[in-house]
Every structure is written in C-alpha cells, then in structure tokens.
Amino acid sequence: MTAEERRNLRAFQDYVIKILDPTYILSYMSPWFKDDEVQYIWAEKNNKGTMEAASLFLKFLLELQEEGWFRGFLDALAHAGYSGLYEAIESWDFQTIERLEEYRSLLKRLQPEFKTTVNPKDILPEVSKCLISQECEEIMQALKKWIEENSELSFLKPGILTGRGKTNQNTGMTLPAQKCALDAFRTNGDKKILIATSVADEGIDIAECNLVILYEYVGNVIKMIQTRGRGRARGSKCFLLTSNAVVIEKEKINIYKEKMMNDSISMLQTWNEAVFKEKVLQIQIQEKVIRDSQGKVEPVPDKENKKLLCRKCKAFACYTVDIRVVEECHYTVVGDAFRKCFVSKLHPKPKSFGYFEKRAKIFCARPNCSHDWGIHVKYKIFEIPVIKIESFVVEDIATGAQKLYAKWKDFHFEKIPFDAKEMPK
C-alpha cells in the first residue's frame, strides 16, 4: 500500500466506520491479524457496539506494515459482500456512499412521522408476505436495521437475499445461505418480509407473497413484469417507491412498452396461421443469410510477453510464455523458476481424474501471503503445478497495465500445448 493510499484510508475512515461490521470480514483477514487482536475486536462489538469495533479494526489495520495487506482488505470486503464499500475504497470515490447518507437521513425523518400517523399493527399483519426489491446492499442493510430497531415493526423479522455470482470482484451469498433465507421466508410465519436484490426477479423459487415493493429500483420491461409476477397470492399488489424523476419516467416507459407488447400479441393472434408461419420463416431465412455472411470473429491472441502476479500480494509468479496447456483445459508453468515462487501442502481431498492425480494445494511462497494458486498433480509420469487464472493479476510488461480474469477462456494469449520434451529428465 502506498503512503497516499494509507492517507486516503485515514481520511475516509469515518465512512468505513459507519458502514462496516468488521466481524463479517475477520475470517478473511486472519493472515494479517493476530488472534488477540481478533478477540479485542469481537469484545469491542459485544461491549460497545459495531461502530466502536470498526474503529478498533481500522486502528489495527492502519498499523500493519506487511506488504499486501491493503489488497487483502479489499478482497475481504469483496468476499463478505460489501460491494459499495469495496468500489468506493478501490477508486477513492465516496460519492455513492455520500448519497446513501441521504437515504439514511430520509429513513430517520420518516420514522417519527410514520409512528404518529400510521399504526403498523393495523395494516402490516394483513401483509402475510412482502418482497422488497433493492439493488444497493448498503440500503438493504439500512432498511433491515430500521425495521428491526423500530418497536412497531420489529415483529416482521426481515430477511435478506442477494445473488451468488461474482460481479466486479464482488461476491454474493452462498447457495446454503440463499436456501436458508428462502426457507425461512417460505415456512417461518414470523418472517414476513424479504429484502432482495434483482436475484429475486427470476430464476429462484420464492414463496407466494401479496405485496411487492420496488424501492428506488426499476429495470427493463421484462424485469418489471417478472418482479410484479412475484406477487402470486390472490389480490397481490406491486408498488414502486421513488423520489427520482428519472426512475419514474423509466417505469412509465416500461408500462407503455408492456401495453405495446400486449397489443402486438393481440394483433398477431388475429393473423391467419399459415400467413404467420410464412412470415416467421422469411425472417429466419434473412437472419441466417446475415449471420453466414458475417462469419464468426475469432479473438486475436495476444502474443506479447506478459507476466502473472499474485492477486493478493502482487509478487511475481511467471511469464505467460512459460504457461502450457494440458489436455486443452488445464494450465501449468514450465521451468524451475516458478517452483521457487510457491509452497505446497498436502491436499485434504486427494483424488484421481483421468491422467491426473491430485496430490497437494499450492500457495504463494511470499511470507504473510499464502494466497491459493491452485493444485499440484501427477500428470502421467510428471509432477506439475496446475494454476487458476483468478488467483493472479495479468500485467503488461511494456505499459504496466494490469487486468483480472475470472476464466482462462477470457484471457486471449498465445496458448502453447504441453510438451513432455520440455520437462527435465
């Protein structure tokens, strides 16, 4: 971490303290913190509260001198699902976080007004299940906290549901965590509200509910119909809550597009079936002619020399010219130099698949890093490492530009097949 980055983290620490619950990321920070420091942070949360624990966490964090800790902190935020905070710190742009303060202030202003004008117990028990769709995780947590801390609303016991996939290095809920949240919403009569991201729009089986609330969230017309369809109970309703004129206008356009779609379907249903089939056939023929004339554009392999750095500590690992492809889908590195860059530990679940015998896991050899790089296998008669691209940063030697890849197929470099002749005798 540079001195400027350290100064920036100190300057913006008030934002971090307000948002971060450090106990969620301590397991990911174990390479950097001592056991007694972790215990102090837990004790601070239990005795004084989350913000005090976050303040102590940052104090320990900023005292670290080992190289690579800042990257480890960002990775921990990503793994724990702090997507907004991750992006704000990585770019040192806290405007999004500042805008969240407006929402939090709005919730605080609305709470006393809501208490004096509406008795939640009169209306909310009628809402057997409610699905609140919201894209920003910080706002989701603010909504959940507001409901839990409101004595008139706490009986609703809100749950949270986010997606599983990685986006911009942000990691969502695990499958077991998703299943637990959905089961609680489906079977637990006390769990009356589920606050969800767009993962709830489609693809996940959510129990029927009679109220869907879109809070400052609007997608395209397809998402609008899918989200509204989540209210499968008889007489269900869907509301969009927003003060943003742009969001309102977009929803009006979606409603207009839905009307156009329904009108078009009604018109098509009046067509003669034979005429309709002929029209579709002509369109398909035209589209095929266009596709065939264009041909498939193959990505051009980058033959320039690049190097792989450990994603966590940025230590040098190897050059791309030393990477070889085994059995068309596994990647190894030839040469003795790479073997000095990693250490190995016996694999907890050794097994064989095809010509491969999985024997050990390999990690970055740099002290205080130990980032997971892949596995060590016996391939036929050869002992070779098999690396995973998501464990590394690809750096252009000439420009210094760095890029991350989630899959090998996305990295278009010159892929050289494994050749036994290159292996030492």
Automatic annotation (TrEMBL):
PROSITE patterns: HELICASE_CTER, RLR_CTR
Binding site for Zn(2+): C310, C313, C364, C369
InterPro entries membership: CARD_dom, DEATH-like_dom_sf, Helicase_C-like, P-loop_NTPase, RLR_C_sf, RLR_CTR, RLR_Helicase
Domain of life per record: Eukaryota
Domain Helicase C-terminal: start-end pairs: 102-276
UniProt xrefs under CDD domains: RIG-I_C
Domain RLR CTR: 294-425
Coiled-coil blocks: none
Protein name: RNA helicase
Keywords, sorted A to Z: Antiviral defense, Immunity, Innate immunity, Isopeptide bond, Metal-binding, Phosphoprotein, Repeat, Ubl conjugation, Zinc
Keyword Ubl conjugation carried by entry: yes
